Amino acid sequence: MGALNRSAFESATPRFATLLLLIAVFPSMYIGRFIVVGPDTAAYRVSSRSFPNRTMVNRGDAVTVVPTPDAPKTDNPYISYNCVKPGGNAMVIGNGSHVDPIAEKLDLGYPPRDALVSGLFALDYEKDDYDTPRIAGVLGATSFVGIVRRDALLVRSVSEATLVATYEKDAPEPYAFDVDSAEEAAETAYTADFEHAVAATGVTLSESGFELATVDSK
After folding, report:
1. By C-alpha distance, which of 35, 23, 74 is closest to 52?
2. How many domains does the structure of the chain reveal?
């Protein structure tokens, strides 16, 4: 059974034994923070081993990642930031302070691709112990997703749900993400089979405009 405890497996009920076997054969993966962007839906999840004491504040037209009241004091500049913010006729979603300048570029009339490239290039990857990439997407009439790593800057237009993460899955790739509302997008991202979920937000675009929702365990 490898790392799976044999006695626990043998004494488990058939249903739970099956679950234990699935966990052993298909262990979850830690990919850090990630975004999913599609033509009319987007989501962002904070996944963290180092700073789990965070939540998301839905401000109506924006979402901000903030420490919880019981979080240890820190001067880390990457803990709190807007992860969703409107810009022009679109919504920007991402894992750090680069969300703000991307939204500002959209307000100035930049095309979505150019605004995304400009913001990611200007702020570059995070200068932490892991050279953590910055990830971002634009949800609008045309949607894009991007990442800036230490070794590359990638921006892609999306015609289907596309995921990119700070670790492991650090290049845009198709991702099964069939949701009908912002609440469902947030919940689906939060419960995705990747380790150390902290909080998630979902955004949907329809004829009536944008809808935002958040979910966490706090």
Report:
1. 74
2. 2
